[in-house]
Amino acid sequence: MATVHPALAPYVRSLVAYDVAFDGSGIHIGMPSTELTWVLPLDEPLAVSWDAAPETRTSGWTSVSGLHTRAAAVHHGVRQRGIQLALTPAGARALWGVPAAALAGQLAELPDVDPGFGDLPTQLGERTTWRARLDLLEGALLQALRRHERPGPRPEVARAMALLTRGTPVADTAAEVGYSRRRLSTLVRDELGVAPKVYQRLARFGGAHARMRHAALTGGVSVAAVAAASGYADQAHLAREWAELAGCSPTEWVRREFPNVQATDRRAERG
Fold first, then answer.
1. In this predicted structure, what is the pLDDT of residue 88?
2. Which of the four, 12, 30, 147, 170, has the lowest number of CB atoms within 10 Å?
């Protein structure tokens, strides 16, 4: 994971340069979250579709997805190299000049969203080191920040998003920021493209996904433990959410994404 310039920190949650080898061609699951995803492949165009909807497949040198409630299928060959960024909703306005709502549920190429980035893939391909590529990308992002100079979400909406992310009930969030529940719902939809409860659902699922991924990278996974730490009523609740949002069970996700890791549930732990 690369260090993000301080001026970009409110807008870029993570920036990862990746070089991954696989046993063969396959599909990586792009998980729903409260972040917008931006991928810049280096060796070949990136093919992405919504899971179980191959007719939505797109292929390009820059892939952008807004907030979504179904998994994306990222098609890969034996090797993938590129740069992936996770943007905050405020980052969509600051770096692309559009609210996150404009991209909700969408798979797109960035030049269609902001033509100012049209030459970036070619320029990245011409660089021969990761340092040179990351420096180029940072410069392009800082230039975009100056180019757009658009205000972010109104402060009360940003405050509401923070409260929802922490699990504050929608009614309490509306009261905290001084809006009716209906007014809050309208403002959040206008900014994000999803209702407050959906955004809160994505936030909780994103936390579970991060915990599951961390557990898979550091040792065996207990689905029950992840469910408890992420605020789900029980393991079955998390399993239902995982199936709806990721398109498979938690244990299947671990098997597909981390084939050498053993995921357990209560039944397995009982023997």
1. 95
2. 147
Residue-wise pLDDT tens digits, 195-252: 999 999 999 999 999 999 998 888 777 899 999 999 999 999 999 999 999 999 999 9
pLDDT at 182 over 90: yes
Q: Which residue has the tokens 């961390």?
A: 214
pLDDT more than 70, % of the chain: 95
For residues 233 and 77, give the distance between their C-alpha atoms in angstroms, rounded to a whole number. Answer: 39
Q: What gap in Å lies between CA 178 and CA 27, rounded to an integer? A: 45
For residues 60 and 45, give the distance between their C-alpha atoms in angstroms, rounded to a whole number. 5
**For residue 3, what is the DSSP state?**
P
What are the C-alpha distances in Å from 137 to residues 4, 56, 107? Answer: 11, 28, 21
Residue 190 DSSP one-character state: H
Query: Rounded to an integer, what distance in angstroms lies between the CA atom of residue 191 and that of residue 103?
Result: 10
Residue 260 has a pLDDT of 59
Reduced to 3 states (helix: H, G, I; strand: E, B; else coil), residue 66 is: coil
Using CA atoms, how far apart are residues 111 and 121, in angstroms rounded to an integer?
Answer: 10
Reference 64, options 105, 28, 94, 12; nearest CA is 105
Residue 53: is it exposed, middle or buried by C-beta count within 10 angstroms (0-12/13-18/19+)?
exposed
Nearest to 38 by CA among 63, 10, 9, 1: 63
Q: List % helix, strand, coil for the chain (3-state, nearest 5).
A: 50, 20, 30
Q: What token pair was written down for 234? A: 């029980």
